[in-house]
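Our preliminary data section would be incomplete without showing what the modeling component actually yields. Below, a chain of 349 amino acids is followed by its predicted structure, encoded as tokens that our downstream tools consume directly.
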Amino acid sequence: MNDQRYARQISLEAIGIKGQEKLATARVAIVGCGGLGAIAAAYLAGAGVGYLLLIDGDRPQLSNLHRQVFYDTGEVEDKATALADRLHKLNPDVDFKVAVNYLDRQNIAELLGDDARLDLVLECTDQAQVKHLVSDFCAIHEIPLVYGAIHKSQGYLALFANQQETDCHLRDLFPEPDDRLPTCAEVGVLNTAAGLIGLLQANEALKWLLSIGNSLNNRLLTYDCLRMEQQVIQLAKNFHGDLEDVFKRSDYSNGQSPLANRHSRQASDDFEISHATLADWPSDSYQLFSLLNEAQEPDLPGGAVRYQQGALKEGPDKKVFYCARGRQSKALAELLRRRGVEAYWTLRL
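Predicted structure:
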């Protein structure tokens, strides 16, 4: 351990040499290396956390870079590998491991299970199914979890210690994942919101690993970047089911990339249309609407128009909607069907 590197940290009474040694032996996994995870990873690496497992199956896109500031324009490596390379230059003391995977029910035990000997997990994705997958697994296996989420200019942070029966987990806050909740790609995000929550996740992780300060265990912090207001909410045990049974029965269907295999994906309900089925429909038998804005989709596919309220009165009876990941298009199709419209949804073409 390089004492000079950590001198300003060791000089803190709450940390000292013993605290720095704790960090050097700590093992932490970060699920998602985007706007939250990359920031959290950088500060944990800088602090001298000895082992960091970076999990992400995605590659950086240009629209990511305003908040995912550790990647280069035109980055060709996947996020986890590129981040590990960058942070190794920051602190070669850290043992970085990379998993170029979308976390799902099939691989979570291999990545986060007993063999990984993890002291802590940070959940940093923007997918509801993955958040519940990670929370359920960590609660069952008694692995402490730092939860972070952002929505536009607001952020959310909690720590689920998962050590006692009275400790809360994500299902006490959200009993079921709601796939209709929009992602950053669909509603946008203030880059500083991602940065702040990522930093707070790292802060919560350091407090837990060092046993200092007051943790957010069983509490939820909400922060509004535009109003500069924050609130801490006490959580209660609202979930009283058998979590292991829930884990066995749940497929966490969006636990992999929602865009993976999208062209061969089968429809999951009677008003979801696969790309193959849509290709078989005569082009004059339906209207195709994009819910994406011009920044998200500068060029529309053939026959598509941008959706505007009140634009459904003319044209064929069948209306097909798509968005970035299917959440908004499915919700809109459900709403319109209740109003008597023959509405369908699909994934981005």
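The domain at 275-347 is CATH 3.40.250.10 (Oxidized Rhodanese; domain 1). The CA atoms of residues 43 and 202 lie 6 Å apart. Preliminary results of this kind motivate Aim 1 of the renewal.
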